[in-house]
Amino acid sequence: MADNDPCDALKGTPGYDYCTRAPDSGGPPGTGSGSGGITGNAVDNARHLVESLLRKISGLVAPKDAWAPTRSDSALYEPFLWLGQHLAVAIFVCVVVVCALTAWQGAPRLKHMGASTGWTLVAVAGMASVPGAVMLLNKAVSGAFTAAFNSNEDTLFGAISHDLKNGADADNPLAKLLLLAAVAVALAFAVLVFITRQLGILAFVCMAPVVLASLARGGDTTAVKTWAQRLLGLMFAPFALLLISPFVQLAKGSLIVDSVLLVAADALMLRMIFHGVPYFGPKVAGAARAYVESRTPSPLAHAVVRAGAPDVYEKENVPRSPRTVNTPGRALSQDRGVLFTAYGITPKEREGRLTTQSAVAKARREASETASRRQQLREVHQQHRTTTPPQDAPPVRHQAQSPAPAAAPAQPAAPAQQTAPSQPPTP
């Protein structure tokens, strides 16, 4: 029995001829009868749109090409290279002069001058190789990310593409609509990840010559290690999405569960910005959370952005503590202090304190917690009073009141002793 034609529902209306028109009849492209009609083409268009958006997300989270310069002679990188090389040479000359003036110390000064010479050559060579190394590493990260998320049906994006064709709810328009909405939201977060990540890589590549020049003083690698940690953390941040890879097999075959995984990926991308982007990551993630919370009343959306950008306190100059982050100025000041220390300059340390907004928020939160704790204590005491039966008081024994004893008869007063006139008075 032949399948029913969806266009049969339009019989007797002017749209029936439009629906059954053949593709080669001069009508609008993509129209026809049977499975190739408007309904079938709409499904195919939705599937192609989702697949193209998934490719866009993969290209935005881990793009093959970075904004950072790929060669040391680029117009953007060359001024920083010139500055770093001249700075390294100037430091080396100062070391040689100091060693010459204190040559009477012997071997220690010769050793210092030899270390400065070697590290200066390493710094100058490293300045010229940083753009190429970053470019190769970025391509490797992009290829690995694509292989992990969009290479076959066992990956997240590959499973979504497979479910669009063969999933249990592939013919359900509502499921495809939910998936399309989830993909669109994930695309917005991917754009935010792309912008912050590319700007961060560009900034760290450009400041590489200035950081590497600190090696010329004698091999202090503290500033270089800090710079490398920031840059590598920024470049490898996309691999945080690997946390949802174990759940791909559980979600395979259902577009609804695929949409849930994409929502989890949104929270991970926001958390990636929060932890992976140096200095300004918490600010950017907090701004994205505030934007979402102000634009939608959905509790689910609020929960997702709060999972990606949690509530934190900002601090300026105190050591890190749980759920407390530094302001951008404080974070820059700390890394600047590391760089100055590598150059031999002792930075001035400042006492730490919470920012005004964070201090007010903390005081309000502590006051509300104290009030709620007192209320809970009152409720517990009241419940204890109502549930505990009162103890029976001991019976009061009423003693019979006996009549008051009769007063004793008054005794007559003793007569006054008469003293004889011939006897002396009794003492």
Brief synopsis:
The chain is mainly α and 427 residues long. The protein is built from 14 helices and 2 strands. A two-stranded parallel sheet has the order 1-2.
**Average of the residue pLDDT scores:** 78
Q: How would you write the strand order of the largest sheet?
A: 1-2
What is the helix/strand order? HHHHHHHHHHHHEEHH
Poorly predicted regions: 23-40, 318-322, 414-427
User: What level of helicity do the residues show?
Assistant: 55-70%
Strand elements, count: 2
Largest sheet properties = 2 strands, parallel
Radius of gyration: 42 Å
H/I helix tally: 14
Secondary structure class reads mainly alpha
Q: How does the overall form come out from the CA principal axes? A: flat
Strand content: under 5%
Head-to-tail CA distance between termini: 153 Å
Write a concise keyword list for the protein shown above.
1% strand, 427 residues, mainly alpha, 14 helices, flat, two-stranded parallel ribbon, 61% helix
What does this molecule look like?
It is a single chain. With 427 residues, this protein is mainly alpha-helical. The protein is 61% helix and 1% strand. The chain has helices spanning 14-20, 38-61, 78-101, 107-149, 156-166, 173-206, 208-212, 222-235, 248-251, 255-276, 281-295, 299-308, 328-343, 356-387; strands at residues 313-315, 324-326. A two-stranded parallel ribbon has the order 1-2. Helix 6 (173-206) packs parallel to helix 10 and helix 10 crosses helix 12 (299-308). It is flat, with a radius of gyration of 42 Å. It starts with 13 loop residues before the first helix and ends in a 40-residue tail after the last helix. The model is unreliable at 23-40, 318-322 and 414-427 (pLDDT under 50).
